[in-house]
Amino acid sequence: MHILLIEDDLDLGRALQSALKVEGLTSEWLRRAVDAPLAVDPTTVDCVLLDLTLPDGSGFDLLARWRAQGEQVPIIVITARSAVEDRLAGLDGGADDFVVKPFATAELMSRIRAVLRRSARQASERWALGELVIEPRRHQAQRGGQALDLSPREFQLLLELAREPGAVVPKGVLAQRLDPLGEPVDFGAIEVHVSNLRRKIGAEAIRTVRGVGYLLQP
């Protein structure tokens, strides 16, 4: 999963990127409001970590703009502002969580996992989809109680399909999500990974929607 980090502090930014990498999350780090995207693409960004005090603007303005445009991506505010008024402004303005600096990195990682679970409509660290159980943090999956031997790419593909079980995930979305920091994955490679994944979780578990993409049967 991919995190957009908007934070101007050099030491904190480096520390957060390192912590995200340990958690198996990729990230892009921006330090100015002007560099922030006009819209957050949910096909490439899973969560935004947003500082409120930036050298050229306010994180509140970015938050307000994205929510006014209907952006649904989870946003966690990280700030040194501890006043109740700031907390209320952030949460009422559409932030999914509000973390005051200084904070423990482990706590922030836990909060990221929590908003990602809510985004994926899962109540715990174990995503239960019928006989299929996925544990994103441990990079493990089971079917019918049996552990699945999945390659990193196969697990990543399964995770992306499981985010919206029963919904079609376009090939273009998968191509971008499987390598958010690089070139989109070739469609042919995606077909190979899907074929391998089907052999391991059952051919009936993934349905092809011709000309569009793939659907994980809930």
Automatic annotation (TrEMBL):
UniProt superkingdom: Bacteria
Domain Response regulatory: 2-116
The keyword Cell inner membrane belongs to this UniProt entry's keyword annotation: no
A Gene Ontology BP annotation from the UniProt entry: regulation of DNA-templated transcription
UniProtKB keywords: DNA-binding, Phosphoprotein, Transcription, Transcription regulation, Two-component regulatory system
Annotated positions of the 4-aspartylphosphate modification: D51
Span of domain OmpR/PhoB-type: 124-218
DNA-binding residues (ranges): 124-218
Alphabetized GO MF terms: phosphorelay response regulator activity; transcription cis-regulatory region binding
GO terms under cellular component: cytosol; protein-DNA complex
Protein name per UniProt: Two-component system response regulator QseB/two-component system response regulator BasR
